[in-house]
Amino acid sequence: MLKGKTVLLGVTGGIAAYKAAYLASALVKLHANVEVVMTKNATQFIAPLTFEQLTGRRCMVDTFDRNFSHQVEHIALADRTDLVIIAPATANVCAKLAHGLADDMLTTTVLACTCPKLIAPAMNTHMYENQVTQDNLDTLRRYGWEVIAPGSGHLACGAVGPGRMPEPQQLVDHILRHLALPHDLEGRHVLVTAGPTQEALDPVRYLTNHSTGKMGYAVARVAMLRGAQVTLVTGPTALEPPPFVEVVPVVSAQDMFEAVSQRQEWADFIFKAAAVADYTPAGYSDDKMKKKDGDLSIPLKRTTDILQHLGAHRRAGQVICGFSMETRDMLENSAAKLEKKKVDMICANNLKVAGAGFGTDTNVITLITAAGARELPLMSKEEAAGEILDAALALAP
Predict the structure, then answer these.
(1) pTM to 2 decimals?
(2) Backbone torsions φ then ψ of 6, nearest 5 degrees
(3) Across-strand partners of 379?
(4) Within 10 Å of residue 305's Cβ, how many Cβ atoms?
(5) Does 88 sit behind a cis peptide bond, omega within 30 degrees of 0 on the bond before it?
(6) What is the C-alpha to C-alpha distance for residues 51 and 374, in angstroms, rounded to an integer?
C-alpha cells in the first residue's frame, strides 16, 4: 500500500530503539522506501547495520559522512521524503525539534522536511509527565506534528506508567492513514453498519445469521484511509475494529436501528452492510412455547427494516447504499430493493458464486444504481470497498 512512498524513520537513543527495526521491516513489506536516520546515542542500543540489512539502504548518522554523492544529503533526503516518523523519540530530541535545534543529521534533516511529521515519545514516566516535556510536545503539535501517545505499563527503567513506545503495527496504522490512499473523503462523515445481529430467544439461545462483518469492516477501514470521519455500528464479530474509527457495538436489530437513526442526520454517506436478523421473538416465554411431536414452535415478528427507514428519512445530499445477498434472481431482486427502499445504490452478490458471500476474504459484487448495473470481478474485500466508495462518491452532489 506504500509503493513509491518514502518514509524517513528517525531513531533516537532509547531502549525502545529495537522496536524501530520491526517498524522498518513492516514498512518495507508494504513496499515503502525506508530511509533510516539515527542519532549517535541510538547506535549504542542498535547497530546501523541492522537497518541497512532490513531496508537495503544506507543508514545515516553523521551529517558530514563523505560516502554520499556531491549533493547536500540532508536537503536531498528531506525533498524526497513523503512522511517523517521519529520512533522512539527521547525527551531530548523532542525538546530539540520543538525549538528548531539542528545539531545532528536527524534534526537537521527533519528541520528541512515539509511533509507530514509524526513523533512517538518513549521515555521514563516522570520524564514524560514533566511539564517541560509536555510543553515541548504541545509546541510540536502547534507546529503541525502528530504526537502519538505512548502506551502505559512496566517500563525498562522499572517505572510503571505512560512512556512505552507503541507497538510497530500501531505506528504503521498511523503512517497508512497519511499515505496509503488519496484523501478524497476528507471532511466527509461516513456511517457503516456491519456484522450480524442476535435476537435472544432466552438467556441461552438466540437467532442470528452467518455474517462475519468482513465487508462492512473493509468499507469502514478504506473510508478511514481515504480521510473520512467514520462511525462503525457493529453487531457481534470476531474482527479487530479498524483504527481511527468510532466503534458502536450493538447486539440486537433494535439496538442497531437506534444507533443508526441517532447518527443518520450528520452522515454524508451511509453503508448498511450489516446482515440484520430478519425475525425476533414475539412475546416469547417458556410457558408460551408450543411443543408438538418433540419440535418447538416459537412466535416471531419481523425486525425493523433499517435500510427502508434510512431511505424514508434521508436528508438532502445524503448518499445511502444497501447490500443484498441473494441465491437467485439477484439483479431483479436487488433492483426492486433499490426502488422500494429509496436508496442510491445496492451492492449485490450471489451466495452461490465462488469467492462471494459470508466469511470469505474476497467478494464478487454487482453495483446497482438508477443508471444500471456494473459487475465487479472477483477481488479482495478491501479492493471491493474501494470500488464501492468510488461509486458512492460519484453519486454525491
Answers:
(1) 0.89
(2) -110, 120
(3) 363
(4) 16
(5) yes
(6) 46
CA distance 158 to 66: 41
At 291 the pLDDT is 55
Spot the catalytic one: 94, 157, 321, 347: 157
Alpha-helical (H) ranges within 56-111 are 73-80, 91-98, 105-111
Question: Which amino acid, residue 188?
Answer: R
Q: How far is residue 188 from each of residues 72, 170, 234, measured CA to CA in Å?
A: 41, 24, 20
Q: Give whole-number Cα distances, 172 to 83, 133, 393, in Å.
A: 12, 24, 27
In DSSP terms, 375 is beta-bridged to 366
Is 113 tagged catalytic? no
Inter-helix orientation angle 131-142/91-98, to 10°: 40
Q: What value, to the nearest 5°, has the Cα angle with vertex 371 and ends 367 and 376? A: 25
The three grid cell numbers given for residue 174, joined into one nine-digit string? 498511523
70, three cell numbers: 556531491
Contact criterion met (CB below 8 Å) for 6 and 78 = no
What cell does 380 get? 479482495
Buried b (16+ CB within 10 A) or exposed e, 71-110: eebbeebbeebbbbbbbbbbbbbbbbbbeeebebbbbbbb
Tell whether the model's pLDDT for residue 93 goes beyond 90. Answer: yes
Contact criterion met (CB below 8 Å) for 14 and 43: no
CA distance 302 to 278: 6
At 9, the amino acid letter reads L
What is the per-residue pLDDT for 176? 97
Contact present, 355 and 362 (Cβ < 8 Å): yes
Which tens digit of pLDDT belongs to each residue from 191-247?
Answer: 999 999 999 887 888 889 888 999 999 999 999 999 999 999 999 999 999 999 999
On the question of pLDDT at 175 being above 70, the answer is yes
> Which own/partner pairs from 160-163 qualify as long-range (CB within 8 Å, at least 24 positions apart)?
160/125, 161/125, 161/128, 161/129, 162/125, 162/128, 162/129, 163/121, 163/122, 163/123, 163/124, 163/125, 163/127, 163/128
| Cβ burial, residue 341 (10 Å; 0-12/13-18/19+) | buried
